[in-house]
Design goal:
The complex is a heterodimer of chains A (285) and B (319). With 285 residues, chain A is mainly α. Helices cover 77% and strands 0% of the residues of chain A. With 319 residues, chain B is mainly α. Chain B has a single domain, classed as MetI-like (MetI-like fold, Orthogonal Bundle). The chains are: A mainly alpha (285), B mainly alpha (319).
């Protein structure tokens, strides 16, 4: 009897949760199914009409993916996204680690003030930075180049990455440094041999966080790379596709899924680190 | 002779040692800057210098150069545009609507899900599913939802899931992204909420799980019902985290851009500040106006910058 009442009282909880879960997955499922349907079917009927005969062949094909990857050049954009994200993430993680160590464990004049500026800059609207940098970029011929966007992404990511790594490194017990100093290790050696190895989990979180941020970025890429297809990452190419082929759902859905594939793999395989990164950034109240 | 040379040698050695000391002192002084230097140089060039120059640029006219003979000083003209033109007034109004609805929904849903999911066995999988949108690009999310909102006349079959539901319930299909001012703006905001709720949920859930269970049990034994436990115990304990999450959401929403750019490009009364700034830069080549609009964003975000710094100083002081 008690059990029954308990179960009954929990029905509303399950209903609310399932309602939310449904809203959160139906749009993505619709996109995924549509991306595998024949163009004529997509235009003729809703994607949910596949359900009665979900597993009957003939209604699915990879044609749309071939269309976007070859025809619309998204294969190149995918490559560009990798060429942009990986070096930019690596460079910013390395520079942020050095800076975080300096701020956490070295003494120099202005240390506190400078770090406060870094913390303040975490939320600055990037819109404040484009107009003065763009003319310099064109003069230095950095506009529309990969090194140009590596630098920009590195710099824009630095306040948050430095802050996150600093949070971790400042928690390392001081004794560790003292014993290293007694052994005669230089700060650089201490940094490489002791600090970096124990910071690996934190650095992994920051790396994944930053990688996804850059992979998913549209604004910075659109501003510094422009829309030239030879350098454009997926986000920029797909936004162009929306502008030019806005009703061709067979292309748009496949394109969107191409851009989501890698983040989803990263998300499901490394969710732990991703969550840790988010918590490290926000829980510090 | 031999004594003199040994004396000289001694002097030389002292000099060398003195020089060595000075050298190692200089190295020790310079060392921190080798660690923080690269970051500071990049931050100065890409964030600090441009911020100052953008403020200056907002008092100059059209053109795509920073400041020079081809750019004219125009005083407050751009600022007049920012606060009196129709499109900017719409953008400011929409940013206000976004801020209120987006922040309330993301934090509210996130909190509700954090508390409810703690009571069910399928918590982990449900959380993952709701969290997924945080990992994908806003451009991708915008396409997902553009398809949900797809509109076709009633004579032909609907391909957008939302209008299919409306038609199945006997209604007329709605042009979700066209119908102003509330329907289309709310539909855009819903996309933002869909992307960010999982983020809020994860943080709030971690904080909720940190509340000692005895605290909740004690309240229940004292006869409090679940609502009271939530209002009187959970909410006050979680308040600091809720505040942090809410400010993070406000900062995010003030800068909202991708969703609007991809889904409506600010047409049909859905303009927002950041999208207008982009248009002034790349469609109208008016860096003056674009700068003024960017400064508006900066001004709106400044209180949160100060708040972050204060919070940080407190945290450092408490260590």
């Amino acid at each position: 009897m008690m059990d029954l009442r308990r179960t009954a009282s929990r029905v509303p909880i399950h209903t609310v949760i399932l309602f939310f879960v449904a809203i959160w997955i139906i749009p993505t499922v619709g996109l995924l199914i549509t991306s595998f349907r024949e163009p004529a079917n997509i235009a003729g009927s809703g994607w949910w009409t596949v359900f009665p005969k979900l597993f009957s062949g003939g209604q699915y094909s990879l044609e749309n993916y071939v269309g976007v990857l070859r025809g619309e050049g998204l294969a190149l954009s995918f490559l560009n996204s990798l060429i942009i994200s990986i070096p930019a993430t690596l460079i910013s993680t390395v520079i942020a680690s050095f800076a975080a160590f300096g701020f956490a464990w070295m003494s120099f004049s202005g240390r506190k003030t400078l770090f406060m500026i870094v913390v303040g800059l975490m939320v600055i609207p990037l819109q404040m930075t484009f107009i003065p940098v763009l003319p310099i970029y064109s003069k230095l011929r950095l506009a529309g180049t990969f090194p140009g966007i590596w630098l920009a992404h590195t710099a824009y990511g630095l306040p948050l990455t430095t802050y996150l790594v600093h949070n971790f490194m400042s928690g390392i017990p001081k004794d560790l440094f003292d014993s290293a100093a007694i052994d005669g290790a230089s700060p650089l050696k201490t940094f490489w041999r002791i600090v970096i190895p124990i910071s690996i989990p934190a650095l992994a979180s920051v790396f994944i966080f930053q990688f996804l941020w850059i992979w998913n970025d549209f604004l910075v890429a659109a501003v510094y790379l422009g829309t030239r297809p030879n350098v454009a990452p997926l986000t920029v190419s797909i936004a162009n596709l929306v502008t030019n082929r806005g009703q061709d759902w067979e292309l748009l859905t496949a394109a969107a899924f191409v851009s989501m594939a890698l983040p989803l793999v990263v998300f499901f395989s490394l969710q732990r680190y991703f969550v840790r990164g988010i918590l490290a950034g926000s829980l510090k109240g | 002779m031999s004594r003199r040379s040994s004396n000289n040698e001694k002097n030389d050695r002292t000099a060398v040692r003195g020089f060595g000391l000075a050298w190692s002192w200089a190295v020790a002084r310079a060392r921190p800057w080798m660690f923080v230097g690269p970051a500071l140089v990049l931050i100065t060039f890409f964030l600090i210098y441009p911020t100052l120059m953008t403020i200056v640029r907002s008092f100059f006219g059209r053109g795509t150069t920073l400041i020079g003979p081809s750019v004219e000083y125009v005083g407050l003209t751009n600022w007049k545009f920012v606060f009196t033109s129709n499109t900017m007034l719409t953008a400011l109004r929409n940013n206000a609507i976004w801020t209120v609805l987006f922040t309330t929904c993301t934090v509210g849903f996130g909190l509700m899900l954090a508390v409810l999911l703690d009571r069910v066995k399928y918590e982990k999988i449900a959380k993952s599913l709701i969290f997924i949108p945080a990992a994908i690009s806003m451009v991708g999310a915008s396409i997902i939802w553009k398809f949900v909102y797809a509109f076709r006349p009633i004579q032909i079959s609907q391909i957008g899931v939302l209008n299919a539901v409306v038609v199945a319930l006997g209604g007329e299909p709605v042009g979700w992204l066209i119908k102003r001012p509330w329907v289309n703006n709310i539909c855009l905001i819903a996309v933002g909420v869909w992307i960010w709720t999982g983020f809020c949920m994860v943080i709030l859930s971690a904080a909720y799980k940190n509340i000692p269970r005895q605290l909740l049990e004690a309240a229940r034994i004292d006869g409090a019902n679940e609502w009271h436990v939530f209002r009187r115990v959970i909410l006050p304990v979680l308040f600091p985290t809720i505040a942090v999450v809410a400010t993070t959401m406000v900062v995010q929403v003030l800068k909202v851009f991708d969703i609007v750019f991809v889904m409506t490009n600010g047409n049909y009364g859905t303009e927002v500040i950041a999208n207008r700034m982009y248009k002034e830069m790349f469609n109208y080549f008016n860096y003056g106006r674009a700068s003024a609009i960017a400064v508006v964003l900066l001004l709106l975000i400044t209180p949160f910058m100060i708040l972050n710094i204060k919070r940080f100083t407190k945290q450092e002081g408490g260590r």
